[in-house]
Amino acid sequence: MSSVSSVVNVASNLAKVRERIAQAARRAGRRPDEIALMAVSKTFPAEAIRAACDAGQRLFGENRVQEFAEKAPALAGLDLEMHLIGHLQSNKAKKAAEIFQAVDSVDSLKLAEKLNASVETQHAASLPCLIEINIGGEEAKSGLPPDSPEFEELLLAAPRLDHLQFRGLMTLPPFTDDPEGARPYFRRVRELRDHLARRRLPAISLDVLSMGMSHDFEVAIAEGSTCVRLGTAIFGERNGRA
Description:
Elements: H1 4-27, E1 36-40, H2 46-54, E2 59-62, H3 65-71, E3 81-84, H4 93-99, E4 102-106, H5 109-121, E5 127-133, H6 149-157, E6 164-171, H7 183-199, E7 204-210, H8 217-222, E8 227-230, H9 232-235
Parallel strand pairs: 1-2, 1-8, 2-3, 3-4, 4-5, 5-6, 6-7
Helix pairs in contact: 1-2, 4-5
């Protein structure tokens, strides 16, 4: 990924996906600047992140604490905003709060409490977070079912977790070969966001709706996504998979 051709490919791919995001936004009657592009750099080396940064990308997502901890020294000095988007075990909350600027995968009150305590101990500014929604009810995926008591418990606990900023929702729908298959799930999460907004819950902001990946992000934008998470479309194939 450190070769000249790879660097050029990352820059070219970024330009292409930015244009696709802009076109999808316009088709949906939205402004392109309403949608943030997150480059998902999991499994890719620090050189790939540097190439994207050189092409003007600042927002990145990583799935594992340890993987990014190993890359971080090679990225020192770069102007990056790194989010954890993968499942976070509560025993790694302290390290996550140290090395990430946000955690977009809060999926339990226990984890939220651990993150809150970690930020407080570090005397750091409050940590932005998203609540992960398991919209498809898939047992193999993390996230909170939207109709679960645990989800409501987390929402109501937000005011006392004063070192966390709850900024919105994140989801990963069941995979379908046809991107249109994801549309009902994206729509349900947007409707959930709208329902929560009407409740005016204290300490819960709903500005961010993180949904859509390389194969379905244009559908997600049509359904209201404010942040799309793209890996393959920017960095290429990952271990032979799309």
